Amino acid sequence: MLDIQCLKDFHVLAQLKHFGRAAERCHVSTSGLSRRIQSLEVWLGAPVLVRSGAGIELTAAGERLLAVSADAVAALDSVRRAVHAETSVRREQIRFAAPHIMSALFFSAWFPLLGARFQSTRFSVTSDHLDACAASLEAGEEDFLVFLADEANGVFSRLQPVFERGGFRLLTMGHESLTPVCVADARGRAVHSLDGDRTRAVSLLGYSDECSLSWILEASLRATPALPTFKRHHENSLADGLRSMALAGLGVAWLPHRLIADDLVARRLVSATSRHLDIAMHITIARRSTAMSDCAEAFWDYLNDEYGGARGRAPIGVSPHLPLPA
After folding, report:
1. Structural domain tally of the chain?
2. CA-to-CA distance for 14 and 61, rounded, in angstroms?
3. How, if at all, do strands 55-58 and 49-52 pair?
4. 66 and 146 assigned to the same domain
5. Most buried among 112, 223, 262, 307, using CB within 10 Å?
């Protein structure tokens, strides 16, 4: 199935004719942009560009696709905006954008808590990679963005251009952590231990670079001393996928604590270290500085009034004790 985001990225690349600059404009890594273009070429059945000494040039197939898809993308975006506007008029609706992991960690427990207060409000969540979610918020397609931010600023350093342009307001609603875990041997010891001989390579199960948890993990690893050498043979864009790999004994993975709480209790997974190597994260909500619908503005006021933040200006790190799942 063709992903419209691949077409949008293709248009940017065709305009800039440079993978690095196009990746920065699209808020994705160079390798992530390359994979999207490859996906587009698989769908089309032909290469859309060639690299030359002068840079990047479109193939004949790429030129044909560009001519047709520009109008198609514009038309689809126009329809989507119109449908969103009509839906908002017909009923009270608050729209969230969030990375996939937030559905498992946050929304499933949070929405029932809001139901009694906002009985007539319809809440909807669009899940995607964080860079795409931030772009949707900036474009006004969603009311709020809910995501995980880290103390090493791995997330904010990647999204800095978007946040600087948008002048977003941020509020921290809770906390989560990434915990290094792996399977245990017959004695209950970590099979892929991060302790001991640091010259021994340890299999690290990593997140693919379009996943915001990868930005958090890599920023923390760079700042953590005395880690072993890692060998990286496996990765996944979803935390659930990495959990399955860890359960299969393929290596150590830093996974959201709430996702693996039952696994730790049942000893299906164990800590991979005796050191404190958990990575602290903040559950953060962002909105645009410009006015939203009356329903969305009332919801924002509720968050601030009920949970202690100054209206619209609560900084990262302030926890207003929003009820969250244990």
Report:
1. 2
2. 13
3. antiparallel
4. no
5. 307
Task: Return the SS3 of 273.
Answer: coil
Cα gap 168→136, rounded to integer Å: 13
Two tokens, residue 190 = 């970590």
253: left (phi over 0), alpha (psi -120 to 50) or beta: beta
In this structure, the number of other CB atoms found within 10 A of the CB of residue 290 comes to: 8
Residues 99 and 84 reside in one and the same domain:
no
Query: CA Rg, the chain, in Å?
Result: 22
Query: What is the domain-level CATH number for residue 61?
Result: 1.10.10.10
Q: Verify that 33 and 66 share a domain, yes or no.
A: yes
**Which residues does 284 contact at the CB level (< 8 Å), separation at least 6?**
146, 147, 148, 149, 170, 171, 172, 173, 316
Please say whether the dihedral angle defined by the alpha carbons of residues 174, 177, 183 and 188, taken in this order, is positive or negative.
negative
Q: Are residues 204 and 238 in the same domain?
A: yes
SS3 of 256, please?
strand
Phi-psi region of 231 (alpha: psi -120 to 50; beta: other; left: phi over 0): beta
Domain identity same for 32 and 62: yes
Taking only the tens of pLDDT, the chain with its 326 residues reads 677 888 888 888 888 888 888 888 888 888 888 888 888 888 888 898 888 766 788 889 888 888 887 788 788 777 777 766 665 554 578 999 999 999 888 898 888 888 778 888 889 999 999 999 999 999 889 999 999 999 999 999 988 888 777 678 989 888 999 999 999 999 999 999 999 777 789 999 999 999 999 999 999 999 998 899 999 999 999 999 999 999 999 999 999 999 999 999 999 999 999 999 999 999 999 999 888 888 899 999 998 877 655 333 333 333 333 333 33
Same domain for 67 and 124, yes or no, is: no
3-state SS, residue 206: strand
Q: Closest by alpha carbon to 212, among 326, 97, 321?
A: 97
The range of the structural domain enclosing residue 83 comes to 4-89
* Spatial distance between the Cα atoms of 42 and 47, rounded to a whole number of angstroms: 8
pTM for this entry:
0.70
